[in-house]
Specification:
The protein has 280 residues and is of the alpha+beta class. It is built from 5 helices and 15 strands. Strands 10, 11, 12, 13, 14 and 15 form a 6-stranded mixed beta sheet that branches. Strands 1-4-5-2 form a 4-stranded mixed beta sheet, covered by helices on one side. A hairpin with a 6-residue loop joins strand 8 (141-142) and strand 9.
């Protein structure tokens, strides 16, 4: 999965004293695009700029480390004439597709996007509307007027492999992602993740489930989520009543007939693969 970058390691502990130096790596987003080396991208490689590539004064915000490499967010996208030579803004979705590496840079990209999105959306206080400022003690935004404090937002969502003997319930979304998927959805306020599993399966397919069991989680920074994977069994009638507003396909599929997604990034694909190979 996308977070499996061993032997490399993400260290996301906030360092309030970190100051960007010439050799540090820079992540910069601009309207859904990421600044990367254009020649490297053509060769299926993600290469970020370094602080030394930029001219003039810029404001950098510490993000995290991968091994001993520090990553900083360039908070304001540079003007066209200030973009470092050899670099350009590329569509973030295109950059994070399968087959482009190295994998640790892929993971840095989506994790950096998660934090950058939160900074972007936390400029003003949700309680009183005044401008927020950066905390000097932790990764937080605070309002100096009403004392409200905001921390990075992580949205819990479930991925559900519903099994029925040697078959599993596969879906395809009505729009967007074109490959096989599993039932998925966000946890609502006041509900447990197990209740989310039951509700989402019922809403999307009309099927009741039992024997809900946790499998694995995955950070999914591209959508600001933490994905929680579960398997469960059909409970009684296995007739599918599909929600056509969300899905264009929902069927019971035998292990040997499962068509996997084209890459190894997602928890969904790993769960389908585990069932296909009879390892669950």
């Amino acid at each position: 999965m996308i977070q499996d970058i061993y032997p490399h390691k993400l260290n996301n502990q906030y360092d309030k004293d970190a100051v960007a130096s010439a050799g540090d790596t820079v992540i910069c987003f601009n309207d859904g695009r990421i600044l990367i080396n254009k020649d490297a991208f053509e060769n299926n490689e993600i290469v970020f700029p370094r602080v030394s590539d930029f001219k003039g004064d810029h404001e950098y915000r510490y993000l995290f480390k991968v091994d001993e490499t520090s990553f900083f967010l360039l908070e304001a996208a540079p003007e066209e004439e200030d973009i470092p030579e050899g670099f350009e803004f590329s569509d973030e979705r295109a950059v994070r597709k399968e087959g482009i590496g190295p994998k640790e840079n892929h993971y840095a990209l989506v994790t950096g996007k998660h934090i950058a999105d939160w900074y972007r959306d936390s400029k003003f206080c949700g309680r009183c509307g005044h401008k927020m400022v950066h905390s000097t003690k932790e990764r937080a935004m605070k309002c100096e007027i009403c004392k409200n404090k905001s921390y990075p937002r992580i949205m819990p969502a479930v991925i559900v492999g519903v099994t029925n003997g040697d078959r599993i319930l596969l879906t395809k979304y009505a729009t967007g992602f074109k490959y096989n998927a599993l039932v998925a959805g966000f946890t609502e306020i006041g509900e447990t993740v197990e209740e989310t599993v039951e509700r989402e399966v019922m809403e999307e397919t009309g099927v009741k489930v039992k024997n809900i069991r946790y499998y694995k989680s995955q950070p999914w920074g591209s959508a600001n989520d933490i994905l929680l994977g579960f398997y469960c069994d059909v409970d009684g009638d296995d007739t599918i009543t599909m929600d056509e507003s969300e899905l264009k396909y929902a069927e019971w599929v035998k292990r040997e007939d499962i068509e996997l997604q084209p890459g190894e990034f997602s928890l969904t694909n790993e769960m389908m693969k585990m069932f296909k190979e009879n390892r669950i």
